[in-house]
Amino acid sequence: MKSELFFLNADPLLRDECSQILQCPEQTFPIRYLGLPLTFKKLNKSDFTPLITSFEEKLDTWSSSLLSMAGRLVLVNSCLSTLPVYFMSVFKLPRWVIKELDSIRRAYLWQGHSKKKKLITIAWDKVCSPKIVGGLGVLELESFNSALLAKWLWKWFSATHSPWQSLVRSLFEHNTFLPQNSPLMLAFQQILPAFHAVTFFSIGNGAIVLFWHHNWGLGLLALTFPILYSFSLDHDISVANFLQALTSPLNLFRPSFMSSLSAQTQFNTLSQQLYNSTVIPTTLSQDQIHCKLTSNCLTSSSFYKFLKVFPKIPSELNHIWKLLLPPRLKTFLWLMLHNKLPTIDNLQKRGLPIVNRCCLCKNCSESIAHTFGSCSFFKDVTNLALNRTGTTRWHLQDLHPSAIIAGNFTNKQRELLTFSCYFTWRERCSRTVSDHTSDSNTVAFLILEEWRLLNPD
User: Fold this and answer.
1) HSE-CB of 81 using CA atoms within 13 angstroms
2) Rounded to an integer, what distance in angstroms lies between the CA atom of residue 291 and that of residue 235?
3) I need a surface site. Which of 114, 188, 240, 246 has the fewest CB within 10 A?
4) CA dist 60 to 50, 64, 199, 323, 417, Å?
5) pTM of the model
6) What percent of the chain has pLDDT over 90?
7) Given the DSSP bridges, would you call strands 288-291 and 199-202 parallel, antiparallel or unpaired?
8) Which of 453, 436, 283 is nearest to 359 (CA)?
9) How confident is the model at residue 117 (pLDDT cuts 50, 70, 90)?
10) Can you tell me the distance from the alpha carbon of 387 to that of 302, in angstroms, rounded to the nearest whole number?
11) pLDDT tens readout for residues 249-271
């Protein structure tokens, strides 16, 4: 028998009778249903263990020894980052769970299955920033968790006749989603300011729109009239109920409101605005919620972009992802422009006792600025590549790595420069770990071969 019976506050005799009639065993909470834990209490550590375990099991099926960082980035974005989405659409993940999942994703991105810790990495916040502001676009779990839960707020205010909404309204107060002390309600409270910033209401009967907290034509009145709001008896009062009681202020505010001059002044100003407003509730239609981000409804992706991008300034590094380059070269260029390649000067900063000498030109100290700028080997390789591809030559005397993106180059020139930097770095790494060396003609030939695959004409 696969079926089981669960009862809520049922009489023991009724339980026994139902079990005998249906021939089903009785079970108790907590349980797992459709992969999610169902319990009356706050979720404990064991409830999140299957989620963390799923990450580790997924990694065990992958072979990352032959994958570049770009390949591992694809797996992190397409697989690891999507595993908790189903769970996050219902529950707010605790900070410790997010840190645990981030540590797994971060370790795999930088080192794969290797137990050896990567010496040079970039802050995880930067990695999780959108590409438009200079990051790698890895999903930031905490913000996306908030974006997924914001959909429930949208459904609460838009689907006024849904069965689940009627059930919640019958159990709790009219304008309250859940009990104020519930973990989920606390999570909603954290995202409400951002949610109100991207939504507005058109007034129908004013039954579900909160007078103080929703933007329904007069702005967010709790912020506009903070003193008057502090005297309010019900901070979650609806527009309809507030306007109905407006003629008797003591039904809306604490008695001490009458002795506060500043509160009286704000009340008079508010009353005048309401009198002049054309937004008057009627009983003919329902309140409607609208989204400023999209034309139809709030989506998790649009709300996530709002949380991550606004009010950040776009970065020039966003141009990296517009170049016609293989993913491994784009990722390499991103690391190079962040000065996070394991050059000798960067390794010395982390305490490694290494003599700093460029193994390519054998004349200067090795750094990103030298290796991809003033190094004679890099210049020879780049000039040879320019000659063989027929690309217009330019002076390389003052070239700096940042100029690849910020300089006055065409996209073709940026792409060729990136190829030159990448194959120069490959040659540098080859000389570091072995005695095998290639001259500038050989490296330029390798650049030409791969360049022709992307530019057959």
Assistant:
1) 18
2) 23
3) 114
4) 15, 10, 43, 34, 38
5) 0.82
6) 23
7) antiparallel
8) 436
9) confident
10) 46
11) 888 888 888 888 898 899 889 88
